[in-house]
Amino acid sequence: MSFRARLARFLEGPGGGREVLEISTPLMLTQVSYTLQVFVDRLFLTWYSTDAMAGAVTGYFSTIALIGLFSSVGEYATAFVAQYLGAGRRERIGPAVWQGIYFALASGLLVAALAPLAGTLFTAAGHPPALRESEVAFARVLMHGAFFTILSATLASFFAGRGKTRVVLLVNVAALAVNVVLDWLLIFGHGGFPRWGVTGAARATVAAQAAACALFLALMLRRRHRDRYATSTGWRFEAPLFWRMLRFGIPSGLQLFAEVFAFSLFLVIVGRIGTDALAASGIAFNLNMIVFMPMLGLSMGVSSLVGRYVGMGRTDVAERVTFTAFRMSLVFMAACGALYVFAPRLLLAPYATGADPARFGAIAASTTVLLRYIAFYSIFDMMNVVFAGGLKGAGDTRYPFLLTLTLAVFALLVPSWLLCVKLGYGLYAAWSVATLYVALLGPLMMRRFLARGWKHLSLIERHAPEKPAAVSL
Predict the structure, then answer these.
(1) pLDDT at residue 120 above 80?
(2) CB atoms < 10 A from the CB of 470, how many?
(3) DSSP line for 264-301
(4) Residues contacting 222, CB < 8 A, separation 6+
């Protein structure tokens, strides 16, 4: 068979490359927009102050671990929407999204109530006072605005689960534009605004998410969606559906929480080595997001398609979807790895602009080495997110969480703490441990998918539920 024939066979048909790209590409670009938001924040803050940038890194990772837990639970409505769509039960899509909205409200209030504890957390980390001040300021603003971040992820599920991923992309591009403009105004005090620095960056992020929520709601409540998907009449609280969503969604959220929080603690450990080591790690992780965030978008596309085909009873096509995404991501990772290894100066150039040359030179040298670690472990990171996406789309959310938690504790945090805090080893020892952690996570996630136990799972009820009575919330 010729290469052209093999390529056509790979691209065409249900679960082929063309379908996976059609659904996943807008979601990948959406994740790039998130990456750009964080990149612009860090870039402007690097120009503003190195301490502010380093504080925003740990403040962001520590806070997004908590917010990401709840956002991922709300976002898991995507799998419910996809399975209802595949089963031909469109009238259940609106009620599924509304249960996510109620969850977003409750969890947003909870995170905001925990905001005062940010000071205690970063005081315990033992970082220098200037760094701690930036960490606390950034984290508290994000926690007070967590509702908008969680709600935005939840509302996006209405579109992503139905394969309308271009809408998700366009809304998030609009949010990115809001964020960039407000960053420029609020960090540096342009246009008559106060010079808020790290606080301004956080406020710009919250405002951008609020704008995304407004757009998603306006589109979801259009008349054609109200009629076809019960987006207005399906607002009632349904306890069985709500708790089923939490049953499957919470492990999904806990997986992201475990991974992000583990890397937050990892950065805390790196911060004990020194501010320059933390700044280099922060920049390296930001550049890593260029690869990792699109892979999250691909994972979301895989979950959506797997959920749809599981709802149809076509688990064979669901399996093809996942392996199609896996093969495509190998090509993407090879290209990105080459960029990390052979063009580090190009990647670091925006950070050097406006930064103190004497201070940034040592940070850039360390970051160049860290990018080689990223080039290696990104292959395994890709395996993790793609196969976890397939498992989650079918409803297997517990194993990804338990695997991530176990390895985060025993393959990442404990070894890096022993090596760096107790034994006094430096930055590269810590990153060697992080690389080992990812190298274990990817193959073990793939092994679970190959066991095919997920083919016997289902998220949705197989009979029409009785019409629930209205519940005042």
Answers:
(1) no
(2) 8
(3) HHHHHHHHHH-HHHHHHHHHHHHHHHHHHHHHHHHHHH
(4) none
- Select from 82, 114, 119 the least CA-distant residue to 97: 82
DSSP 214-269: HHHHHHHTSHHHHHHH-TTTT-S--HHHHHHHHHHHHHHHHHHHHHHHHHHHHHHH
Tokens 């008559």 belong to residue: 192
d(CA 93, CA 155) in angstroms, rounded, equals 12
| CA-angle at 244, arms to 243 and 245, nearest 5° | 90
Amino acid at 448: R
Cα(409)–Cα(422) distance, integer angstroms: 17
Q: Rounded CA gap, 369 and 380, in Å?
A: 19
Where does the pLDDT of residue 472 fall: very low under 50, low under 70, confident under 90, or very high at 90 and above?
very low
**Which residue type sits at 20?**
V
What's the pLDDT tens digit per position in 304-328? 999 999 999 999 999 999 999 999 9
Nearest-10 crossing angle of helices 17-48, 315-342: 40
**What gap in Å lies between CA 401 and CA 72, rounded to an integer?**
12
Q: Among 403, 404, 396, 402, which residue's Cα sits nearest to residue 449? A: 396
- Using one digit for the tens of pLDDT, what is the confidence trace for 34-49? 777 777 777 787 777 7
Pair of tokens at residue 212: 């995304």
